[in-house]
Amino acid sequence: MNMKDTHMTKKELEETAEKYLNETFKRFDFIAEKGEGMYVIDEEGNKYLDFMGGIAVNATGNCNERVVQAIKDQAKMMIHSSNYCYTIPQIMLAKLICENIGMDKIFFQNSGAEANEAMIKLARKYGTDNFGPDRYKIVTALNSFHGRTYATLTATGQPDSACQKGYAPLLPGFSYAEYNNLESFKNACDENTIAIMIEPVQGEGGVYPATEEFIKGLREFCDEKNMLLLFDEVQTGWGRTGDLMGYITYGVKPDAVSMAKAMGGGMPIGAMCTTKELAKTFGPGAHGTTFGGNPVCCAAAYAQITEMIEKNLPEKAREMGLYLMKKLENLPGVKEVRGKGLLVGVEFNEDIAFKLKYLSAEKHLLITAVRDNIIRLAPPLLVSREECDKAVEILKNAAEELL
Ligand SMILES: Cc1ncc(COP(=O)(O)O)c(C=O)c1O
């Protein structure tokens, strides 16, 4: 659908949005009409350099040709059939994913929160089935983000934040420990803890990568205590941090991992992958979904992941991430630049992140802000050096105006 189809002006469309949309986002002042590789194009044809990537989604670029073709082809054949039927895209995608990331089984969902919800349910059921009804507790990290359903909101280690305020009582059985602090996690677990759930890089929390020592320590501790190690790779998964999955970089295998965002090339799909043993926890009726594993979404994800592997995009993310981070260190007012691959955070000495986000958009660069003083960059993984230079230049001009 484009502007012409609506017979409305930009102002009329915005008024219509205000009238009918229940808003939870403060939007940019343009209408995103088209996507093309590294660019988002507005209703007047202005091009915005995309260092937001649809919030770490558009890893192979906006409207990647292979993904678009796969969606068109699949939509003509079968849009939805229900999970009572086998479908070709779902089976082929399951094989592609499991074989490429070293996991045994996959359960498809529609989003990151749903994938985490499935992982939490699986861990609890595994605990109570195998060790008794009290073994259901899960420890997550302070400052983490796992989603906005009740279980994932509770797993999110941000007590008193806007995302948790007003929703009490949250789900029982969750407690939090300090990220990158193994002792803190050990202290937070007791004999009824069944799992530790962690992001390899805390994305929404401010772009904090885990140390190798911490992740390896968690694996050893979970093995020792018969606990599950669950990775939330909704944001880090699928090339973003320099490998197909973040845990590959750390050389550690989780018992279960969730994924979404970059997986579907922009289509809403999420999933949870597990070991063979753990997968046995879910049998018929124990969990389910109407849309999860939808043929069009699976066909898009198959195209997205194939493109990523064939074009070696994770390796490109690793290289370009280092280049970008080095450049960003020269921005005015910077306290720290950190990240992994092309999941990059810039922390400023002053609280300019949200103003910088909107000012950069005015200057035709899209970024996100995750804290008052932290911006996040997550461009498509095919970004070039020239595009990184251009983005840093825009950020520099904008930051100078604000400081
Ligand atoms: C690490 C992590 N987990 C879960 C989610 C929730 O994903 P979704 O918005 O697809 O439900 C997000 C979203 O930002 C995320 O970054």
Defining key terms:
single chain, 403 residues, alpha/beta, Aspartate Aminotransferase, domain 1, Aspartate Aminotransferase, domain 2, 2 domains, 40% helix, globular, binds pyridoxal-5'-phosphate
What does this structure look like?
Strands 4-12-11-10-7-5-6 form a 7-stranded mixed β-sheet, with helices on both faces. Strands 1-2-3-15 form a 4-stranded mixed β-sheet. Strands 13-14-17-16 form a 4-stranded antiparallel β-sheet. It is built from 15 helices and 17 strands. The mean pLDDT is 97. With 403 residues, the protein is α/β, with parallel strands linked by helices. The protein has 2 domains: 3-60 and 312-402, Alpha-Beta Complex (Aspartate Aminotransferase, domain 1); 65-310, 3-Layer(aba) Sandwich (Aspartate Aminotransferase, domain 2). Helix 14 packs across helix 15. It has helices at residues 3-6, 10-20, 53-56, 65-77, 88-101, 112-131, 150-155, 182-188, 212-224, 246-250, 276-279, 295-310, 313-328, 353-362, 385-402, and strands at 32-36, 39-42, 47-50, 105-109, 137-141, 174-177, 193-198, 201-202, 208-209, 228-232, 256-259, 270-274, 334-340, 343-348, 365-366, 368-371, 374-377. Bound molecules: pyridoxal-5'-phosphate. Pyridoxal-5'-phosphate binds at residues 111-113, 116, 145-147, 199, 203-204, 232, 234-235, 260.
